[in-house]
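ERR on first pass: missing label on line 2. Operator R.T. fixed the label and resubmitted. Corrected input:
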Amino acid sequence: EPEVTQTPSHQVTQMGQEVILRCVPISNHLYFYWYRQILGQKVEFLVSFYNNEISEKSEIFDDQFSVERPDGSNFTLKIRSTKLEDSAMYFCASSAGLAGGTDTQYFGPGTRLTVL
Amino acid sequence: AQSVSQHNHHVILSEAASLELGCNYSYGGTVNLFWYVQYPGQHLQLLLKYFSGDPLVKGIKGFEAEFIKSKFSFNLRKPSVQWSDTAEYFCAVNPYSSASKIIFGSGTRLSIRP
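pass 2 clean. output:
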């Protein structure tokens, strides 16, 4: 069964550094998403992406964050200058974009980001 | 604001016991409803989903959930749990007006005593 994959599984970085988290969505999916889960808190929506554009973003997704689909397979989340509070598990998800409100998102294993 | 509430943070059961995990959501419009499961060390997996039709939906591994619109609830049930059901369970809502965003509950950790 096809799966969403993410690399790396764990990233440690210094405050102020840029990080890029990578995701390979399921191959025939059209919609891509990033979520994050700070330790002990809920999974929170960050951004959705369709047709090479952001289709929706949350208030968390400020100018420090950006997303890109640099080629036909990867979907990346960049954090420009990391802060301590960016430490979290970041989940990528993808969906086929089915009509009629029946779309289902499939999640990757996550990247644990630790900002020191 | 839209939100999802899961009433139990941690549930401990013995094998063969029956399970019911509560979930309520706050949203006035049409919603899609999901239960995701995260087994230890693994990623979020879809357990079951409700889009429309029969409010009692069956998922994988013997789980089912009932959508009660009047109560804004989508409780998860299993008649007889197994040790392998030990995991974290997340209720989630996708407001129909937002085709993309999923709103998650805080999760319920289920521990099964062998």
